[in-house]
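4.2 Preliminary Data

To establish feasibility before requesting continued support, the project team ran the inverse folding procedure on a target of 70 residues. The structure was first converted into the token representation described in Section 3, and no sequence information of any kind was made available to the design step. The complete token record follows.
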């Protein structure tokens, strides 16, 4: 198994941390949509390892979480 590129690895860490934060907030507010998006944000990087996909999907899911929160 090969390690991902450093930029992809950084994206995986950043978006996983954002996902854990959103999971905590979603549980506190009992917001099911936010919970599902947070789980997706935490787990998608296990499926995609291409740098551009990690960042594109991560940014998209993060924007979706903030849209749901409003």
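Position-by-position output of the design step:
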């Amino acid at each position: 198994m090969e390690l991902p590129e450093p930029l992809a690895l950084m994206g995986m860490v950043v978006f996983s941390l954002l996902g854990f934060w959103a999971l905590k907030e979603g549980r506190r507010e009992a917001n099911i949509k936010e919970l599902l998006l947070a789980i997706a944000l935490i787990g998608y990087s296990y499926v995609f390892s291409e740098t551009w996909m990690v960042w594109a999907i991560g940014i998209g899911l993060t924007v979706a979480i903030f849209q749901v929160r409003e």
